[in-house]
Specification:
This protein has 4 helices and 2 strands; from the N terminus they run E-E-H-H-H-H. It is mainly α. The chain folds into 2 domains: about 1-30, no CATH class; about 35-100, no CATH class. Strands 1-2 form a two-stranded antiparallel ribbon. Helix 2 packs across helix 4.
């Protein structure tokens, strides 16, 4: 049996029973734990998204936004790169904790 998965009434995919259960479990974990994140968690997630977007620009267009805004390997751009790297480590170590109920 197939089910429609929808957001605000707009159906966008049909899935079977197993996939529906898996989607429900993942969404339950994400939404349940989002309210329990502290400021450090949110800062790390935002820095990780900024780093991911910057690497996407580098990969797709060869354009380094951080270097363009702060200078090529200037002190400030190196600080941003270091913070993004540290936030990636933080999220990697905190992710198992966030996924526990």
């Amino acid at each position: 049996m197939l089910y429609n998965i929808s957001i605000k009434g707009n159906s966008f995919v049909k899935v079977g029973n197993y996939a529906k259960r898996q989607l429900f479990v993942v969404s339950e974990i994400l939404f349940y734990n989002m309210n329990k994140l502290n400021y450090m968690d949110w800062i790390a997630i935002v820095l990780l998204v900024i780093g991911g977007l910057n690497w996407g620009l580098v990969g797709l267009f060869g354009f380094d936004l951080v270097a363009a805004l702060l200078g090529d390997m200037s002190v400030w751009s190196r600080i941003v790169y270091a913070l993004v790297g540290l936030s990636a480590l933080y999220v990697a170590f905190m992710c198992p904790k966030w996924c526990k109920k």
